[in-house]
Specification:
Elements: H1 2-16, E1 21-23, E2 29-31, H2 37-40, H3 47-53, E3 67-69, E4 74-76, H4 82-101, H5 112-135, H6 146-149, H7 152-157, H8 163-178, H9 182-193, H10 203-213, H11 216-240, H12 242-254, H13 262-270, H14 286-309, H15 316-330, H16 342-349, H17 353-365, H18 367-378, H19 386-412, H20 418-421, H21 439-443
Antiparallel strand pairs: 1-2, 3-4
Helix pairs in contact: 1-5, 3-5, 4-5, 5-8, 8-9, 9-11, 10-11, 10-14, 10-15, 11-12, 13-19, 14-15, 15-16, 15-19, 17-19, 18-19
Length: 485
């Protein structure tokens, strides 16, 4: 946890340059983003401009109040899912209360957006600490989580956007599942999906693994919890402010291929005009949307096939990483901070420092030519070319694919999995930890025996019989006990 604080401190120092202010000639103190400081100093954060762009400074309730976009005369609303949008609203209210209570105590009073950014950073830092704390019990070797705490990605993107909130909810959901509380896990996944979509993806690998073990009851409870939690937080806005609530989905359907996507890289390097060709104003990239969705569906089927055809049941984190990585690789948008979604899953799925550090370092480095690319678009002759930026993006994508390949190798050859080789089954498995594979009798697939594979640990053994490779002492399972098949 101390290492996580250090990583967050480095992340804050990287962004702090963009939270400075200066006094204008008229005496007003404003945010100092002169001469494209946010790109030139690599300290850009969405949190700062969104305070004005999302009209948070007006104090209105998101989704209820809209504004007219000057570019296309369309009424706009908060563009984030409900939980993330209400986080912004809550921190805004605290910001205004703080400034009202401290008015005149500072000379000069700080700009409102600077206070907002500082308060939001504190909340996002707490979310990351929660994510790290929830991941520690899920690791067979707790010190592997140090790679999450000191990940280069958190040092660059802890405060780029609001994603540590979703990561915390996803990690907490996995911990609840590991502690034999599938209903609570589902609630946390549902809340995470109402912040950023990806925590809901974890239910996919759980479905595959529950099918293999014949233990569908926990999965149904998790699904019920996820749907219920998502509806509880979304339904009031769906009913009261349907246009504002729908804005997130509308904008995502309208977005073209993002700067960091594989589709944009192909376009830049080949001159290809894209699946839809040049887009007119307010035209949705319908073909790109279908292609992106189709590729992700195929990737989901491939991950399910891996989970169902491996001789030994894969671990939860292994399939979850593959699925989330597949979404990022096939999606038309891969914002740099999305890579944080992979970090806790990676340290659980493949606790090998060299390949993970190689990927995380390059992924974090993408930020620097990306900022140079934006600087070059704003001021011709400065920054760097899109080709340099996208070359690093393609290397990042390749490294993610390599990590996926290494994880697939540990699935089909469990002796290469550091967790399995240390004598554990699945520390994050919860109801699945130590369970036997029994799909043959239930689903009719041939070639799978209902007995526990010979390579699997004895499911009837006491959970603390597995040695901890770090301390050489027995280490109990995260769950209350390991059920006998």
């Amino acid at each position: 946890m101390l290492l996580a604080v250090i990583g967050l401190g480095i992340g804050w120092s990287a962004k702090a340059t963009c939270a400075q202010s200066y006094r204008m000639d008229g005496g007003q103190v404003v945010l100092d983003w002169r001469d494209y400081r946010q790109y030139d100093h690599y300290c850009y954060s969405d949190i700062i401009p969104l305070y004005g762009l999302e009209r948070l400074q007006d104090g209105d309730l998101p989704y209820k109040t809209g504004w007219v976009d000057d570019g296309n005369a369309r009424t706009r609303y908060m563009e984030y899912p409900v939980v993330t949008g209400m986080l912004q609203y809550g921190v805004m209210r605290v910001t205004k209360s703080y400034l009202k209570a401290t008015q005149g105590l500072a000379n000069p009073d700080p700009p409102e957006v600077v206070v907002y950014f500082a308060l939001m950073a504190a909340v996002l830092a707490l979310c990351w600490l929660i994510a790290v704390r929830c991941t520690i019990p899920l690791a067979a070797r707790p010190w592997d989580v140090a790679l999450m705490a000191l990940s280069p990605l958190i040092m660059v993107h802890a405060f780029t956007n609001f994603d540590t909130l979703a990561v915390a909810l996803g990690a907490a959901g996995m911990l609840a599942w590991a502690r034999q509380k599938p209903g609570a896990a589902g609630v946390l996944f549902g809340l995470g999906a109402a912040a950023k979509l990806y925590p809901l993806f974890i239910l996919g690998p759980l479905l595959v693994l529950c099918l293999r073990t014949g233990r569908m009851g926990p999965w149904w409870r998790a699904l019920t919890g996820a749907v219920s939690a998502w509806l509880v937080v979304n339904l009031p806005f769906m009913v009261l402010y349907p246009h504002g609530w729908w804005e997130f989905f509308r904008l995502n359907s309208m977005r073209p291929a993002d700067h960091d996507s594989i589709y944009n890289a192909i376009s830049v390097f080949t001159g290809w005009a894209g699946f839809d060709g040049p887009l007119a104003a307010n035209q949705a990239p319908e073909k790109l949307n279908l292609v992106s969705l189709g590729l992700f569906v195929l990737a989901c089927l491939a991950v399910a096939a891996i989970g169902l055809t491996a001789a030994r049941r894969p671990r939860v984190a292994s399939l979850a990483f593959l699925l989330v990585a597949a979404f990022l690789l096939t999606n038309k948008v891969w914002s740099p901070q999305y890579s944080l979604w992979l970090v806790p899953l990676a340290v659980l799925a493949l606790p090998r420092w060299i390949p993970l550090l190689a990927w995380m370092s390059v992924d974090a480095y993408v930020w620097y030519p990306r900022m140079g690319y934006f600087l070059g678009m704003a001021v011709p002759g400065r920054g760097n070319s899109p080709e340099r930026f996208l070359s690093v993006v393609l290397i990042r994508d390749l490294l993610v694919v390599i990590v996926c390949g290494l994880i697939v190798r540990t699935i089909y050859w469990p002796q290469t999995d550091p967790v399995r080789a240390a004598g554990f089954d699945d520390p994050a498995g919860g109801p699945l930890d130590g369970a036997a594979d029994r799909p043959a009798g239930r689903l009719g697939w041939s070639g799978w025996s209902g007995a526990t594979p010979a390579s699997a640990p004895d499911a009837t053994a006491e959970p603390d019989a597995a040695p901890d490779p770090v301390t050489s002492r027995s280490r109990p399972s995260v769950g209350d006990h390991r059920q006998t098949p």
